[in-house]
């Protein structure tokens, strides 16, 4: 059974999502190749989705939620069920952006058939429009298999965090000519197989530029190049929720500092009995 409920506006805490309007579509994203840059951010929860949605072309329910939401050491332990639950929340909180859900490690690599089963489960459970999977030439047959069967696929090449145990860390990729050539070939294979867009993560800039010129679908950079067809960041990173972030993150706010200051004020108000005040308590009826 699908978990794609709509928001219950009778619930006092639920901010209603504007009435459904025409959502952007996967073909409309693909058609933006070489045009106005595509804006994508991660979202994992309904309220965050509501706040980001009007400004974004795509919302990515990234498996980075393993680290950002659950404090896991990497994305490797993330499960299909976690992605389905958060994906459904993000679809409930959005009405404009194309929602893309990450396929977690272990849910797609074994065979195209296994990938289809996992991807179909994610789309049914969430109402999202597309999935993203990591990998290049080895994953091209899977990208083709899914794309030809009604599942739009976003590729992800360069630094692929699910392969951290093979790569040995999260450093930028493509510093040697052999590695650079492989990343360009990976992107070409995934594009040729039918990916509607490709995330290029953590590569030296000329690689991102070469791929962007070479492939027919939009490229979405993260630690790549401003010349990509779009950009993605983890929302919590760009909002300044974490002290330590990758070099490629630009902090557009200091949410950590603002949350700390607000909670410090709250704690002081509780301790001095300034909170709750007259406006926050229920007076008896006369
Ligand atoms: O999981 C994620 O958030 C991602 C982006 C960083 C591209 O894959």
UniProtKB/TrEMBL annotation:
Record keyword Transferase present: yes
Enzyme class: transferase
Gene: panB
Descriptive protein name: 3-methyl-2-oxobutanoate hydroxymethyltransferase
Protein family membership: Belongs to the PanB family.
GO molecular function, one term: 3-methyl-2-oxobutanoate hydroxymethyltransferase activity
Residue ranges the record marks as coiled coil: none
Pathway note: Cofactor biosynthesis; (R)-pantothenate biosynthesis; (R)-pantoate from 3-methyl-2-oxobutanoate: step 1/2
Organism: Sphingomonas echinoides
Function: Catalyzes the reversible reaction in which hydroxymethyl group from 5,10-methylenetetrahydrofolate is transferred onto alpha-ketoisovalerate to form ketopantoate.
Assembly information from the UniProt record: Homodecamer; pentamer of dimers.
Listed EC numbers: 2.1.2.11
Cofactor(s) the protein needs: Mg(2+)
């Amino acid at each position: 059974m699908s978990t794609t409920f709509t928001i219950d506006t009778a619930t006092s805490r639920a901010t209603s999502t504007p009435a459904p309007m025409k959502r952007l579509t996967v073909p409309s994203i693909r058609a933006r190749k070489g045009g106005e840059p595509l804006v994508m951010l991660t979202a994992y929860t309904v309220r965050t989705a509501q706040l980001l949605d009007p400004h974004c072309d795509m919302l990515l329910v990234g498996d980075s939620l393993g680290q950002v939401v659950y404090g896991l050491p990497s994305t490797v332990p993330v499960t299909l069920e976690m992605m389905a639950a958060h994906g459904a929340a993000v679809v409930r909180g959005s009405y404009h952006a194309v929602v893309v859900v990450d396929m977690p490690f272990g849910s797609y690599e074994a065979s195209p058939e296994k990938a289809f089963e996992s991807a179909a489960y994610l789309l049914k459970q969430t109402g999202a429009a597309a999935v993203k999977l990591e990998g290049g030439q080895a994953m091209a047959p899977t990208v083709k298999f899914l794309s030809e069967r009604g599942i739009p696929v976003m590729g992800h090449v360069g630094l692929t965090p699910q392969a951290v145990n093979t790569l040995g860390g999260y450093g930028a990729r493509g510093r040697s000519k052999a590695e650079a050539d492989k990343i360009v070939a990976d992107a070409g294979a995934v594009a040729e197989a039918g990916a509607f867009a490709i995330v290029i993560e953590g590569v030296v800039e000329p690689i991102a530029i070469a791929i962007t010129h070479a492939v027919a679908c939009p490229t979405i950079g993260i630690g790549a190049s401003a010349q990509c067809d779009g950009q993605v960041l983890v929302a919590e990173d760009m909002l300044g929720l974490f002290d330590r972030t990758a070099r490629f993150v630009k902090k557009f706010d200091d949410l950590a500092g603002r949350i700390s200051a607000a909670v410090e004020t709250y704690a002081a108000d509780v301790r001095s009995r300034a909170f709750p005040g007259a406006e926050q308590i229920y007076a008896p009826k006369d």
